[in-house]
Every structure is written in C-alpha cells, then in structure tokens.
Amino acid sequence: MTNNKAVLQWIDEVKALVNPDNVVWIDGSKEQTEALRAEACSTGELTKLNQEKLPNCYLHRTAVNDVARVENRTFICTSKKEDAGATNNWCDPQEMYAKLNALYKDSYKGRTMYVIPYSMSVVGSPFAKIGIELTDSIYVVLNMLIMTRAGKEVIDALGDSPDFIKGLHARKDIDEENRYIVHFPEDNTIMSVNSGYGGNVLLGKKCFALRIASYLAHNEGWLAEHMLILGIEDPQGNVRYISAAFPSACGKTNLAMLIPPALYREKGYKVWCVGDDIAWLRVGPDGRLWAVNPENGFFGVAPGTNVKSNPNALETTMRDTIFTNVVLNKDNNTVWWEGLDKNPPANAIDWKGNPWNGQESTEKGAHPNSRFTALAANCPCVSKEFNNPAGVPIDAIVFGGRRAKTAPLVYQSFDWNHGVFVGSAMASETTAAAAGAVGVVRRDPMAMLPFCGYNMGDYFAHWLTMGTKIPKAPKIFNVNWFRTDDEGHFIWPGFGDNMRVLMWILARCDGTVDAVETPIGYMPKAEDINIEGLDIDLDTVKGLLSVDNDLWLEDAKGLREFYNKIDAVGNRMPKELWNQLDAFEARLSK
Ligand code: OXD
Ligand code: MN
User: Fold this and answer.
1) What is the model's pLDDT at position 430?
2) pTM for the whole thing?
3) 130 Cα: distance to centroid of ligand 2 (angstroms)
4) Of 171, 144, 181, 177, which Cα lies nearest the Cα of 43?
5) Which of the listed residues 203, 252, 277 should we mutate to test ligand 1's pocket, taking the one with most ligand atoms within 8 A of CB?
6) In this structure, which residue's CA is closest to atom 3 in ligand 1?
7) Banded model confidence at residue 384, pLDDT cuts 50, 70, 90
8) CB-CB contact of 395 with 295 (8 Å)
9) How many CB atoms are closer than 10 A to CB 414?
10) 330: which residues sit within 8 A by CB, 6+ positions away?
11) CATH H superfamily, domain 5-44+70-221
12) Which residue CA neighbors atom 6 of ligand 1 most closely?
C-alpha cells in the first residue's frame, strides 16, 4: 500500500521480532471491514447483535483480568527521569526496550499482523498527526476504524514522510504480571503488550492523542488536553464554544451532549457536541485559541447511560457500535447494562460470559467500566464543525472535579495565570455518600494526571507560556456539579441544567454580567444563575456558591504537598505557581 521507506523498514524490523504468519494492511474499505467482522464472529471474538434493532452492532468480552486502563503499568520512558517527572512511572528506555523485546519475541506466531494507518484529526487538517498501529487483534482494528480516520487515504497523505507515531500492540497471553503500556516520547513510539482492553490498546487515544501529543505540543507550542468541546447556539444562530476538563467519571460525555433545559430549548438554544474526551488546541491566525477533537468516535462508559442521563449518547449507540463487557440479552440478542432501565433481562449472559438472570442475580451483569465504541457521526447532536479542519474557536476553558464541599458551583479565574493555578489545583473526591463525610481528595491537575507525557512542572510552565501567545485568550473557569448536602445528596440537579452555569460563563466572556470578587476568584451573584423551572430557590444557589476559607486553606496544604512532590523530580515547578499559591493562601487568611 506504500513505498514509504521509514514505514516499510519499521514494519520489517517488527516482523523479524514478532514473527507473524501474515501481514494485512487496513485500507478502510467496507469490504475489508465486513470480512474482518465476519472472521471475528467466526472465532467468537465478536458476537453479531440483533441487526434489526442494532444494525451493524457487535459485542465483545475482554478477559476478566483486563477491564480497565492500568496506570501502575503505564510508563513514560525518556532518557532522563526528570523529563518524565514525579507523576509518571519511568524506566530507562534501553532497559525497557530490552524487557519489551523479550516479551514481544515471536508473539505473533500463528497470528496475523494488521497494519492500521490512522490520522488523529481530519486528514489534511493543520492539527492532524498520523500514526501507524500494528496489532494482532481484529477487535482493535474495528475499534480503530471507529475511533480514528483510518485506511488508505491516511497512508497516501503520509507519502514519503517519516513523521508518524509508531504503535506496536500484542495481545500475547493477556498476562497482567507482564502487561506494559509504554511510551517513548523521544522516539515517537508506543508499545502495548498483554492487554486487549480499549484504553490500553487503541493506541490513538490516551497513548497518542494525550501522552505523546502532550509531549509534542510542549515542543511545538500547542496544547493536547483531556477536554470535551461543546458549542452553544443562540436563537440567532451564533455558536460559541467551550472546552472542559474533568477527571474520569465526572460526566464529560454527558456534558458534551447535554440537552438544554426547556427554558432555553423553547427560546431556540441548541447544544452541539464536538468532542467528549480529547481536545487539541492551537493559536489561530486571528489570535484566538482553536480546538479540534482528534478522535472520530466515542469510547464511552455504558453503565448509567439512559434516556434521561444522556439520550444523545444512547441514540448514538443504536448502530455501527461495538459494545464491550455489557450484558447480552439472549431473548432478543440485544445488550443491557446497569442503569439502562429498570428491566434487566432474565435470560442473559453477563460480561464474564456466564449465564445471568438480571431479575434475580445480586451480581452486576455489565462491568462498571463496560463501554460502547460509537461513531461521532451517528450522534444526533454532533456539531456541523466536527470535520472542520480548522477546528472551532474557544471562548471559555472550564475545569471541574467532584468536590462534596470545597468548590462552589462555578467561579472564574482572575486572569490566565490564575486560571493555570486553578487548573493545577484540580482535584476530585472519592464519593461522599455517607452523611457529613468528605471524600478523599485525589489531585488531578487539568484532569491530566494519568495522561501527561512529560514532567508535570514543565506542563504547567507550558500552560503559562501559552498564555503569552494567545492574544485573545479564552477565559478560565472552574465548576463543581457535585456539592452535597448533609445527607450526602447532590444539591445541584446537574445534567442538562448544567447549561444554566455555562450561560453565566458565556455572559462573563461577553462582559454582560457582573461578578463578586472572592479569595478564590470571581463568583456569580446568586440571582445571575437562572433557576427558572427548577426545584431549588435562591438560598440554595447561595449555598452552592458559598466559600469556606478554612476548607480552602486545608486544600491549599494538600496542593503545596503536591507541588513539592512534582518539584522533587527535576525542580521544574514554575515560580509563578508557587507565587499564585502563596497569594491564594494570603487572600484566604485575611
Ligand atoms: C478515561 C477514558 O478513562 O476516557 O478517561 O476512557
Ligand atoms: Mn478520558
């Protein structure tokens, strides 16, 4: 399919190592995709679902020991440890290559090597970057064909260039003791072995579009972030874009696809989804920050997705979707998961492949991290700009986490540098369901803790530098949908009603609403959050917006510890953030 010397030489080297029976190039054609689906069904790797109810949909089960990303087995191998930093696992590249090469040796014997040329972002976009993934798994091929733009047009676009990211995946024995997800940012290389779970093996996603891309973005002057992108269209047809970073399990996919509450819907407001997980951002010729979603699909968590929580996501999964580790309803050959509806199938197979009676069993039928891989093009609210090679201009950047008490519903940073501080201070709590209990805080700056491919101190410095390069920089905000009352119930209704907060954010960007200055940032006046049609009153909003200085001072202590931890490897914490932290504590102590 190509004469590209760099590509062919690399494939030859890998072939000599892994020893495949044969090599198949993925061209992206319908015929080849269909043939691969049929082959996977014949071996049991996939189950074809009810084609009337779920056209082109399939089910896959991973091994029971292989159901999630493995952060403790994920490595960033740079020549110097301090370039990977304190928050990444590190190993000397030569040592790691030696260990991995021993594991990969002959691992494709009796298997086929699939060569997947893929592009992150639209082929030909100034944002786009090309990768080639070698894999021995048809499941990986079929997922990559949904999650990325893959096939012949990509290898044609690469031409003779050696500028591509190498990805080598081998299922091997799915042995968790020898599972490795390894990044060599200095060599543009990713190696993944002994896993078949999406986040570890769809190498375009977390491995390339976040870990390797964040390293490249640092060197090249752009940003690769764990952010959704959504557009809000007003009744006049103007669309404004917001990107937002939240740790996993904080509702990114739901926010990206939200249905506006009636009060906005009736006036003609609409919300459009550009992306639900990753944003690549660059300064445009107009001095604004422009963003693309480099992916082509959604790898969403199934449990909890239903007609109320996210009807758009549910609709997206109704065709052309691969479900992983959900329940198979044997009566009608469809799928089910916890939280889909209150009617679990009685005659079913659970995620482990065992018979399961959902009416009687006390065990979960779907794995809590079971997934759907679905095409963005099938989403009812996909943005018209989804395939725009130039991306969309961002007005506001939003950070958020799950905080039972500390963070208010929303606040705005004083300026860009303070916004970087706010992002660096992001944290999310383990659930705080018990009365009065406050969860354990896990620091997760910019929601990038597991995904930053280099030293977190350098990453913060890069964010600060970017602020000097964006003449019309977005404003930076923080939100918290998860404040709880004394019984542990969420106070804010969340889901579509989060748009009420986004509307305040856009009004702040326009300068059409005032704010109150507090030690943590600019806060809304309670009456400026529109609660028309909601079951909560102004006092509740006041409560949601209250700031407890003592709680924040406590939080600042944790943040100082975290900064110290980052600084301990390479002394790379920027002075500016230490100053921000000092100033923050001083404001709180006044
Ligand atoms: C995640 C994901 O774990 O997007 O963040 O899968
Ligand atoms: Mn994610």
Assistant:
1) 57
2) 0.97
3) 20
4) 171
5) 277
6) 248
7) very high
8) no
9) 16
10) 345, 347, 348, 349
11) Phosphoenolpyruvate Carboxykinase, domain 1 (3.40.449.10)
12) 199
Distance in angstroms (rounded) separating the CA atoms of residues 119 and 268:
36
Give yes or no for a contact between 178 and 221, defined as CB atoms under 8 angstroms apart.
no
Which residues, including other chains, have CB under 8 Å from residue 165's CB and lie 6 or more apart?
A: 129, 130, 131, 132, 188, 189, 190, 203, 208, 212
Comparing C-alpha atoms, which of 422, 429, 426 is closest to residue 405?
Answer: 429
Q: Whole-number mean pLDDT of the chain?
A: 96
Select which of 91, 207, 250, 381 is catalytic.
250
Q: Which amino acid belongs to residue 333?
A: N
Polymer length in residues for the chain: 590
Q: What are phi and psi of 203, to 5 degrees?
A: -70, -15
Long-range contacts of 549-552 (CB under 8 A, 24+ apart): 549/519, 549/588, 549/589, 551/405, 551/406, 552/406, 552/519, 552/520, 552/584, 552/588
Helix or strand holding residue 271 (H, E): strand 270-275
Which residue's CA is the closest to the ligand 1 atom numbered 2?
A: 248
Residues 456, 465: Cα–Cα separation, whole Å = 14
- Has 381 been annotated as catalytic? no
Phi (first) and psi of residue 26, to 5 degrees: -90, 120
User: In what helix (H) or strand (E) does residue 30 lie, and over which residues does it extend?
Assistant: helix 30-43
Q: Where in the chain is the domain with CATH 3.90.228.20?
A: 225-296+384-566
Contact indicator for 76, 569 with CB cutoff of 8 Å: no
Within the chain, all domains assigned CATH 3.40.449.10 are found at 5-44+70-221
Could you please report the per-residue DSSP string of 155-208?
A: HHHHTT----EEEEEE-TT--GGG-EEEEEGGGTEEEEES---HHHH-TIIIII
Residue 386's Cβ-count burial label (10 Å; 0-12, 13-18, 19+) is buried
- Label residue 431 by pLDDT band (50, 70, 90): very low
3-state secondary structure of 521: coil
Domain at 298-375: CATH architecture: Beta Complex (2.170)
The hierarchical CATH code for the domain 225-296+384-566 is 3.90.228.20
User: pLDDT, tens digit, for every residue of 399-422?
Assistant: 999 988 899 999 999 999 999 999
- Return the HEC string of 97-142: HHHHHHHHCCCCCCCEEEEEEEEECCCCCCCCEEEEEEECCHHHHH
